[in-house]
Amino acid sequence: MEKKQKGTISKIFTLKRIGLMIVAIALVIVGLVIGSNTSFTTESKTTNLSFEDIGQLATQEAYATEVNHTEDARTFFGIEIPLTKSKQVYSYDVIIKAGFNFEQIKPEIDHDKKMITVQMPEPQVLSNEIVEDSLKVYVEDESIFKKITLEDISEARKTMKENAEKSAIEKGLFKSAKANAETLLEAFIRENEDFNEYQIKFSHKEN
Fold it and tell me: What is d(CA 177, CA 101) in angstroms, rounded to the nearest whole number?
């Protein structure tokens, strides 16, 4: 019989705003121009906004340091056999990025009210990666009678990533992603002079 104990502890957590640094992403604003029938005057109005062919945009990044503690020992009728315990305590940094799928963003224009309502999808985790060179080993005591396997290590890394993501969301990852997306989108919309006097409203789906 064998007894295994695994756990992770979130030690350090920071958020880094990255939304406004992604200015180079192409934002497609399509204008439909309506002209008058006279030879001397013309009138134009942007009647449609769309955010297409953009893919995904990360607007918030979270950093977490996860500490993993793994112990494994051989047992006999529930009693641990001496000199068979292996123990590892180590940490990894984890980076979680959150953002939006731009194909799901639906802007609506009300020219009478001078209002633009942007329907926003739910934010989502776009990536969750362990920083490989961030490894710090605190305890590494392995018995020749009971090795910690690659399967054990793989399962521990998976748990660390899951805990880091959960912790990031609890500490406001999605909330910050929403706020940064609004700032970024409003800045792009304001680049069109037709909308300088329009109020911009964002409507978010609840997670």
Answer: 12
Return the closest-CA partner of residue 66 out of 129, 150, 149, 3: 129
Domain borders along the chain are 2-204
What angle, 0 to 180 degrees and rounded to 10, lies between the N-to-C axes of helices 173-190 and 150-170? 60
Of 27-31, 124-128, 196-200, the poorest mean pLDDT is in 27-31
- State residue 58's pLDDT score: 85
pLDDT tens column, 65-80: 999 988 766 666 677 7
